[in-house]
Write a structure and sequence with these properties.
Actin-binding Protein, T-fimbrin, domain 1; single chain; 274 residues; TRAF3IP1_N; 13 helices; TRAF3-interacting protein 1 N-terminal domain-containing protein
Length: 274
């Protein structure tokens, strides 16, 4: 198992590469414990290049220097977490207060990856809202004269004056799918390596399932037919408790692996069906 440090920041760096932001620099040092200002600067950079999230933030929230209290930081992040979850169709598993305190860097990185992934969806949602709002305002007072009927309608928004596929700064669905595929495949590879590290099956080697099954049956029969009288353990009580606790920890880790496997399978199914 080991105590090796889990690399949760590289997927974040990879998720932002297609966006080609002008800043801030996504370094491992900052991503290992992302400070609030760093996160806010990322959002500001996204808005400067893609205008993706500025429509869900208040004017005060768009000015990072005015977010100067814990309450304002929590409100700012809550807005983004809920909106990104809405765009991706799932709940983002993160506590905004812990993002502010820097106590859950791994989940914070997962949120940042979702933030990058949802940029294209945010632009689409923004365009849809602008179009609906424009329609609601213009419909009741639309003139019916022949002269005005043939004139092009005026618009104050870029999203209304251009076809949706020609919107500036928009990320194509191909890029979004490529990002999602890269993230899911990276997670699958990491899970594969984790299981291969201590699993009974050697996932990176060809094995006959018949032989593996036969060996399991033989092990079962040996245990079943073993009539040797059980002797009390010669281990000291403290050592025995330690051994039992280790076994309990192994069972817990297997349970966590099962949950991780189920989550990964769901992501792969979504990826294959999209």
């Amino acid at each position: 198992m080991g105590d090796a440090e889990v690399d949760f920041w590289t997927p974040t760096i990879e998720a932002f590469k297609p966006l080609q932001l002008n800043g801030p620099d996504l370094t491992p040092k900052l991503l290992k414990r992302p400070p609030f200002r760093f996160i806010a600067d990322i959002v500001t950079s996204i808005n400067a290049r893609f205008a993706a999230y500025d429509h869900v933030l208040s004017p005060a929230q768009l000015d990072v220097t005015r977010i100067d209290s814990k309450e304002k930081k929590v409100e700012y992040l809550t807005t983004l977490v809920k909106y990104v979850g809405f765009l991706l169709g799932r709940k983002i598993d993160v506590n905004v207060k812990k993002i502010v305190s820097g106590s859950e860097p791994e989940k914070t990185n997962a949120f940042l990856q979702c933030l990058a992934l949802a940029v294209g969806y945010a632009q689409q949602d923004k365009a849809r809202r602008a179009k609906n709002s424009s329609t609601e305002v213009q419909e009741p007072s639309r003139p019916t004269t022949a002269t005005t009927a043939t004139a092009p309608e005026a618009s104050n928004t870029v999203t209304d004056s251009l076809p949706q596929h020609n919107m500036p700064r928009r990320i194509s669905n191909y890029v979004e799918k490529a990002q999602k595929k890269e993230l899911v495949m990276r997670e699958a590879t990491q899970f594969f390596n984790k299981v291969s590290g201590y699993g009974y099956l050697k996932l990176d080697q060809e094995q006959s399932m018949r032989e593996v099954g036969q060996s399991i049956v033989e092990m079962y029969n040996e245990l079943k037919n073993n009539t040797t009288a059980t002797q009390p353990s010669s281990l000291p009580l403290e050592a025995l408790e330690t051994a039992i606790n280790r076994q309990i920890e192994v069972v817990r880790q297997v349970s966590l692996l099962q949950e991780e496997n189920d989550t990964l399978l769901e992501k792969l199914e979504v990826l294959l069906s999209s």
